[in-house]
Amino acid sequence: MSKTLRVVAAIFHSEGRVLVCRRNPEKAAGGKWEFPGGKVENGESPEEALLRELAEELNVGAATIGSLVSRSTTTTGEAAIDLACYWVKAESVPQSSTDHDELRWTAIGELSELDWAAPDLPAVRELQQSTVLSEKQEEC
Q1: Is the pTM above the cut of 0.85?
Q2: What's the farthest any 2 CA atoms get from each other in the chain?
Q3: Mean per-residue pLDDT for 72-78?
């Protein structure tokens, strides 16, 4: 039986683009793209964990956690990753990361062009699907 890790991630958004981060090569899933975040520690709520991780990884001191965008479980190797992704607004835009070698603002329609870490793929699909639905609703 695999161990389940609870993980949270932030989806920063601005003008139809979202912030994506490429994992440092020496980390697990090195070179893969993901939304920034990390593990939920014992006794933490998902929102508390996300605020802590954003402060540690991206030096984001003040952020507002919004609604849940996507939640899914993906099995990778020995563990199942239960990933919850939330909309996030921050007072300052992240410029660098302790866990990533590149941060990039990417159009939602171009997300599928990146090489994603498996646990983030359901959130990517959800973002792209909701964008397609929004565009079709605007056409009506």
Answers
A1: yes
A2: 49
A3: 89
